[in-house]
Write a structure and sequence with these properties.
six-stranded mixed beta sheet, Immunoglobulin-like, alpha+beta, 455 residues, four-stranded mixed beta sheet
Length: 455
């Protein structure tokens, strides 16, 4: 954990001008980009070719402190505190190797660099002492040794106090004084989940206390990491899945206490978090988030996000899916099938896709390969194409052994709109009464459901 994170992105600044100058002789002729963050996104503000003598500089205007980055062709960002009251001067070997960078001028950045070196070493020591502590507690050969066990506990306390003392000693007016504890919260999650599980409740509580509308967080480059680390920790806390979902709902509620006061932040955070939960197949949590956002009256969701979330209100698990009428262009159909309700199979997987959808080109043929297995276990498949021409539809579905239908309406297709479809592929698993049992996010998930529930 050096001065390196995994994110990029930005925001224009207005206010007092400040400068960043650097001398890196080994970087002569290289392109260096300079940027900062705006919520989850980032943007390069400027770029320069390093001079023959290894020098380069940037000017920046900032009315409020923020995190900036310098990045070279190696795509390893070097992070900096940007403050209108702090001129920055760097020198060293290469920006890609943070150990070689010397901060000649800039007190906040010097504090930042020092902590970025010291904190990981303390974390390594804590993990090592934690490992030994478990041995002295659980192993009968060592558990009788009270003196070393007490010494281990004492050293763990000393290390934590030393780390906190460094932060407490920083100037309270500095941005880095706020930033470093949040950075520590985010970066320590995996270590806590693996080695210091007793700290999980306090860490979750710290995430819940964050204000996700805070301008400091918005400018920090940590917003995305905070969301991901928060819900990753809940998912990997060792709790039963039902308990995990309960905890995620509590976390979502705590976030909304602030988000409902800022419409732009509500849209940005909800959009990213919803996608995150969907990607991790945490559907109970994503459904809860969707319904909470849709039911919020103090803020307005943007139209694209609202449409995406609306599927969970209209097409959530337990609802009865609309019937379908097949008028024309029914391929590989059951003889004389005119409505979805005429199917007699115990289960039906409805798949919305199209020949122009790159993911569909990969995923739908997988269904064809699994169709005989699923059908033998009582699962029928109906593919609804959002193609716009007969040629593209028929060319795409001809190899498929299951029922396929297209009315050439694309997103305005009556079936697509009745199912609140906004993207492809979209899938719904229905029972014989058309009750929605599952919204699979992949063919693998659907196949796993078949293997588990239809043994």
């Amino acid at each position: 954990m050096k001065l390196i994170f995994w994110i990029l992105s930005v925001l224009p600044f207005f206010g007092s001008s400040q400068t960043l100058t650097a001398t890196f002789p080994s970087m002569a002729g290289e392109l260096v980009r300079f940027g900062t963050f705006q919520g989850i996104q980032s943007r390069t503000l400027d770029s320069v070719i390093v001079g023959a003598n290894g020098t380069f500089s940037f000017s920046f205007n900032t009315d409020k402190p923020a995190i900036g980055y310098l990045i070279t062709a190696e795509n390893k960002p070097y992070f900096l505190i940007l403050d209108k009251n702090e001129r920055i001067r760097l020198q060293g070997g290469h920006l890609s190797y943070s150990e070689s960078v010397q901060i000649i001028e800039g007190q906040q950045n010097q504090a930042f660099a020092t902590y970025a070196v010291q904190h990981p070493r303390r974390e390594q020591a804590l993990s090592a002492w934690g490992y030994l502590e478990k041995i002295y507690i659980l192993d009968s050969m060592f558990s009788i040794q009270a003196v070393p066990s007490k010494a281990i506990q004492s050293e763990k306390v000393r290390i934590k106090k030393e780390d906190q003392a460094y932060l407490d000693a920083l100037n309270p007016s500095w941005y880095v004084r706020w930033y470093l504890p949040v950075r520590r919260l985010v970066s320590d999650v995996s270590t806590i989940a693996q080695y210091r599980t007793e700290e999980i409740p306090a860490t979750v509580s710290a995430f819940r206390s964050l204000d996700y509308t805070d301008e400091r967080l918005y400018r920090s480059g940590l917003l995305k990491d905070a969301l991901e680390s928060h819900f990753w920790l809940l998912e990997n806390s060792g709790r039963p899945l039902d308990s995990v979902f309960i905890e995620m709902k509590v976390s979502i509620d705590s976030m909304f206490l602030h988000l409902v006061k800022n419409q732009d932040r509500l849209n940005e955070v909800t959009d990213y978090l919803f996608d995150l939960l969907e990607r991790h197949s945490l559907f109970q949590a994503s459904e809860y988030l969707a319904l909470k956002a849709l039911n919020e009256t103090s803020c307005t969701l943007n139209s694209d996000l609202a449409k995406q979330l609306e599927t969970y209100r209209a097409m959530k698990k337990g609802n009865i899916a609309p019937d379908m009428e097949f008028r024309v262009n029914l391929k590989n159909s059951i003889p004389k099938l005119k409505k979805l309700s005429e199917l007699k199979s115990p289960y039906t997987l409805i798949v919305f896709g199209a020949s122009w959808c790159e993911t569909c080109k990969e995923e739908v043929p997988k269904i064809a390969n699994l169709y005989s297995k699923w059908k033998a276990k009582g699962v029928e498949v109906v593919f609804i194409s959002l193609d716009e021409t007969k040629e593209s539809f028929e060319q795409f579905v001809t190899p498929f052994p299951f029922t396929s239908y297209c009315d050439y309406g694309k997103w305005n297709s009556p079936i697509a709109t009745s199912y609140c479809v906004f993207g492809t592929p979209t899938m719904f698993l229905l029972d014989a009464k058309r009750e929605i049992l599952l919204r699979p996010n992949s063919i693998q998930q659907m196949d796993a459901w078949v293997d588990y529930f239809l043994k």
